[in-house]
Amino acid sequence: MANDSFKSFRPRPSDGRAEEPLSKRNRLLDINTSSRLDILFRQMTESDQLMYVYFMASDSGTLYLGVTNNIVTRAHQHRTRFNNGFSNRYSCHRLVYFEIHVTAGEAIEREKQIKKWNRSKKERLIRTLNPKWLDLMLMLPGTENVVETESGSSARPSDGLGRNDS
């Protein structure tokens, strides 16, 4: 079934190999969403001094808003329930939104701004990047070694824990 609003760069492997995250992403996202993510991913690879404001979501719709300097490690911590706290207690393990900021101050101010918003405004923000509320964790650059298990959790080699910013 072809849909012109979706783009796919590579066909799904038919030899039993695991599908690459890029091709999986391109099958799941419409062209506008994929283009926006490509811009964000390019920014991520250009600097290691960036800060991120992000939303994690539970399957029941509970949202967790946070700030980090390493989105890959932090999303992995949420998925593996590394830290005790709100996101662990309410099973917020899917990365559904993130935005990039140049300074920590800028990211913290943005987080404070978003925390004041009502639920529907937060949902609209998430849908601007991720209309289907897909888990963006496995699409991030640097997650090539993440293996998704049957239960939907993930495992990856340790790459350092970075800053604890729950």
Automatic annotation (TrEMBL):
Residues 12-21 have a biased composition (Basic and acidic residues). Residues 49-124 form the GIY-YIG domain. CDD domains: GIY-YIG_unchar_3. Residues 147-156 have a biased composition (Polar residues). InterPro entries: GIY-YIG_endonuc (IPR000305), GIY-YIG_endonuc_sf (IPR035901), UPF0213_domain (IPR050190). Pfam families: GIY-YIG. PROSITE patterns: GIY_YIG. Residues 1-21, 147-166 are annotated as: Disordered. PANTHER family: BSL5627 PROTEIN, UPF0213 PROTEIN YHBQ. Belongs to the UPF0213 family. This is GIY-YIG domain-containing protein. It comes from Candidatus Uhrbacteria bacterium RIFCSPHIGHO2_12_FULL_60_25.
